[in-house]
Amino acid sequence: MNNTPTPHNGAKLGDIAKTVLMPGDPLRAKFLADTYLEDVVQYNSVRGMYGYTGTYKGKRVSVQGHGMGIPSIGIYTYELFNFYGVENIIRIGSAGAIDESLHIGDIVIGMGACTNSNYEDQYKLPGRFSAIASFDLVKKAADEAERLGYTYKVGNLLSSDTFYDDGQTLKDWQKMGVLAVEMEATALYMNAARAGKKALTICTISDCPFTGEATTAEERQTKFTQMMDVALSLIEE
């Protein structure tokens, strides 16, 4: 049975490449497609969540917005892995610094993702699941960031279900060595594990809660190009 198009994605089977780069912001997806890709075709605009396929240095790649939060990325990545034959998903997103040595524009490569979400409950596991990235993608991303001279760290992310949090909890995660907080990596890593596919999250620090540093929406949309450079280096044939 062909499950495409879906209620959330207007693409047909074959429209989407084996490797997909996924920002939360659909306008960042458009920016990446317009700036980096050749022979671009837009395959999705359902719910304003733009998706494009093109080529980068001769390699076919897609870029697809995924929205905010674990439920949203959970839907889009499940469909990409299980209905569209996607093999690799690289999330390129923004994150808030938990490690106080991180600053605006620094890159965090998410080797693992802690969470306060109950997303894993669906799997009925007899314990807790450690949501981790695919090692080969982590290694390649770190090697490329090193080669390009970008400031980066590799380590744990926190995928939070809350953006506005009544509790002051980030210091607790800081004590455990967590580098940054975002809202999606856990679901991406769990969906990839369940489907037997590969995934990675690369984030750019957009704000520092402990120092008050912050960026604008426009800067987050168009200025975070270093993580795009790294992600584009991971495209497989």
From TrEMBL:
Entry keyword Transferase: yes
Annotated residues for binding of phosphate: G24, R28, R47, R91, I92, G93, S94
One cellular component term from this protein's GO annotations in UniProt: cytosol
GO MF, any single term: purine-nucleoside phosphorylase activity
Binding site for a purine D-ribonucleoside: H8, E182, M183, E184, S206, D207
Keyword field: Glycosyltransferase, Transferase
EC assignment: 2.4.2.1
InterPro entries found in the cross-reference section: DeoD-type (IPR004402), Nucleoside_phosphorylase_CS (IPR018016), Nucleoside_phosphorylase_d (IPR000845), Nucleoside_phosphorylase_sf (IPR035994)
Residues of the active site: D207 (proton donor)
Pfam families linked to this entry: PNP_UDP_1 (PF01048)
Reactions catalysed: uridine + phosphate = alpha-D-ribose 1-phosphate + uracil; a purine 2'-deoxy-D-ribonucleoside + phosphate = a purine nucleobase + 2-deoxy-alpha-D-ribose 1-phosphate; a purine D-ribonucleoside + phosphate = a purine nucleobase + alpha-D-ribose 1-phosphate
Organism superkingdom: Bacteria
NCBIfam families: deoD (TIGR00107), PRK05819.1 (NF004489)
Family membership noted in the UniProt record: Belongs to the PNP/UDP phosphorylase family.
Oligomer and partners: Homohexamer; trimer of homodimers.
Name used for this protein in its record: Purine nucleoside phosphorylase DeoD-type
